[in-house]
Amino acid sequence: MLDSAPRQGRIHSVPEISESFNIAQPVNRVWALLQNIPEVMTCLPGAQFTGQSADDVYGGKVTVKLGAVTASFEGEATVLDRDETTHTCSFNGKGIDKRGGSRAQATFSYQLSEVDGNTHVTVDADIKLTGKFAQMGRTGIFNDVAHQMTGEFAVNLEQKLQANATVESGASMPDTPNPVAGEINAFKMLGVIVRGRWRALCAVLGIGQSKE
Question: Are 148 and 193 within 8 A, CB to CB?
């Protein structure tokens, strides 16, 4: 039987993700780059652009490693709505890990707003998972990883915007390598998160501080 959907297991919804970050660039410049999907995907950890099948329909692959398990979700994302006046955009995506059978469905939206000449970005996502990687949704791991990914994406996006501005000005470009797709190492990201939380707790409790 080719139709194995009923065997994929229950669908687990990840608690709604809401993230925000600031970019030290004007709104119109950030908006313009975000419309260039292939360029944007080079900024997203673990993501790779694989082609465009139609207007506003983009193919991609996202590779995630959770311990000894690695999944490569291949699929498409479709832009649902784009408003340059309000600087808002929404799209949905779906992908499947052909080797492990895990599936992902997601709806994303973002909005840009001007703050003192810079850009404030808010991102909301609704994600559903099935298969082995559904455990990330059940345990809350996915939300922590999404937070870390958003931070890395923001850094990569700002670096690309700065590099583009340098080229446009005619100045010599700094030797800054482009982000590499690689994979999302969930456990490594969680290690960063846990260490950060531990340091914050130690600071509150006064543990490990110098007594000088």
Answer: yes
Domain count, the chain: 1
Of residues 18, 14, 20, the one with CA closest to residue 124: 18
Task: Give the range of the structural domain holding residue 193, as residue numbers without chain letter.
Answer: 11-169+177-205
Q: Is residue 2 part of a domain?
A: no
- Asked whether residue 212 is assigned to any structural domain, the reply reads no
Helix (H, G, I), strand (E, B) or coil at 141: helix
Angstrom distances, CA of residue 52 to CA of 37, 119, 166, 204: 10, 28, 28, 50
Q: Which long-range contacts (CB under 8 A, 24 or more apart) does 45-49 make?
A: 45/149, 45/152, 45/153, 45/156, 45/179, 45/182, 45/184, 46/149, 46/181, 46/182, 46/183, 46/184, 47/181, 48/181
Is 210 inside a domain boundary? no
pLDDT of residue 116: 95
Per the structure block, which two tokens stand in for 49?
A: 């652009």
Low-confidence ranges of the chain (pLDDT < 70): 1-10, 67, 135-140, 169-212
User: Are the C-beta atoms of residues 18 and 123 closer than 8 Å to each other?
Assistant: yes
How far is residue 189's CA from residue 149's CA, in Å, rounded to a whole number? 8
Q: Taking a C-beta distance cutoff of 8 angstroms, is the pair 56, 79 a contact? A: yes
Q: What is the reported pLDDT for 203?
A: 54
